[in-house]
Amino acid sequence: MDERHIRQLLRRMAGGEPVAAGAGTFGQAFAPLVFYARQFGYTYTDITAGRRQMLIQFVPDPTPQARARAAENRARYPDAATGGELPPPDPDAMALIKAQGYFAMDLPISEGMKIGLSVLLVSFVSMALVGRFGLGIGAAVWAGALALVAVGAFFNRRSRARNSALLEAAGFTLTTDPMGRRRYLPPADPPD
């Protein structure tokens, strides 16, 4: 993650208002931005698709723990927003944030629906290839792509189970938001 984005976020947070920050195309910046926002008194509320990138929504965290953590970090790192030293990243906290982001960026449709849509897309592309290159190439592409769908579904299940276990062990609670997305909410005082 480019420190420039972190420092921009910290400068915008200085006003005490809700802010949004870009997380890149596939949310690569999610964990670092959420980690540093928490260090300086903000909490992540949602991630949405913007025009060219994912946007993370942050609001000031009113809890006493968050205020104390923010005051301590502002005193220890007074120039963090303008090029000074940043708090060192905590690998355990970053792992929890990444696991939380995995669910935040997931589509609100079932795994069966995702597999079904993938198979349908693969079939349409394969039929187009049959018309252009013949049955042999179309069938080979269809079989290979279906194998990739199966492998992807396996790894997605494994990743979901691993991230769920990590978050639940840390006290996060699984909820479903009004849009049908499954999300893990942090305990009262999220890990730093």
Share of helix among residues?
55-70%
Shape: elongated
Mean model confidence by pLDDT: 85
| Global Rg | 21 Å
**Strands across the major sheet, in which order?**
1-3-2
Labels describing this entry:
14% strand; 6 helices; 192 residues; two-stranded antiparallel sheet; elongated; 2 domains
Task: Indicate the topology.
Blueprint: H1 3-13, E1 19-22, H2 30-39, E2 42-49, E3 54-60, H3 64-76, H4 91-104, H5 111-133, H6 135-169, E4 173-176, E5 182-185
Antiparallel strand pairs: 1-3, 2-3, 4-5
Helix pairs in contact: 1-2, 2-4, 4-6, 5-6
Describe the fold and architecture.
- By secondary structure, the chain is α+β, with helices and mostly antiparallel strands.
- The protein has two domains: 3-89, no CATH class; 109-192, no CATH class.
- The chain is built from six helices and five strands.
- The chain has helices at 3-13, 30-39, 64-76, 91-104, 111-133, 135-169; strands at residues 19-22, 42-49, 54-60, 173-176, 182-185.
- The strands form two sheets. Strands 1-3-2 form a three-stranded antiparallel β-sheet, covered by helices on one side.
- Helix 1 (3-13) packs parallel to helix 2 (30-39), helix 2 packs across helix 4 and helix 5 (111-133) runs antiparallel to helix 6 (135-169).
- The longest helix has 35 residues, at 135-169.
- The radius of gyration is 21 Å and the shape is elongated.
- The two termini are 18 Å apart.
